[in-house]
Amino acid sequence: MNKKLPIICPSCSSGLKVKSLHCDSCETTITGQFNLPVLLRLEKTELDFVLDFIRCSGSLKIMASKLNLSYPTVRNMLDDLINKIDKLEQDV
Predict the structure, then answer these.
(1) Could you say which of 36, 79, 83, 90 is the most buried, measured as most Cβ atoms within 10 Å of its Cβ?
(2) Where is the DUF2089 domain (predicted)?
């Protein structure tokens, strides 16, 4: 089973931060407060879109064909994702 890293608090819906990192090899643990990278703060469908976009060499035309959507629809999806990423970067 492939568990997904939670990014939203199940109790209050605030964004989660990483508090510690651990190396199984040497048993080193690093404790602090670390922000999650922007891509990890995207929803699964948004991250899937990013990965598909990269696999399509950044071609919206190929993405539209793959998703069976119009080019303008896929362009709007990309624009929405760009806006969300910009907002997430400002929130850090």
Answers:
(1) 36
(2) 9-37, 42-86
Cα 64 to its chain centre, rounded Å, is 20
Give per-residue burial for 27-48: e unless 16+ CB within 10 Å, then b. Answer: eeeeeeeeebeeeebbeeebee
Q: Please state the pTM of the whole predicted model.
A: 0.74
- Is residue 20 within 8 A of residue 31, CB to CB? The reply is yes
Largest distance between two CA atoms of the chain = 51
Please calculate the CA angle 44-46-50 and round it to the nearest 5 degrees: 115
Q: Which residue has the higher pLDDT, 91 or 54?
A: 54
Q: How far is it, in rounded angstroms, from Cα 88 to Cα 12?
A: 18
Contact 34, 74 (CB under 8 A): no
pLDDT tens track for 42-70: 988 999 999 999 999 999 999 999 999 99
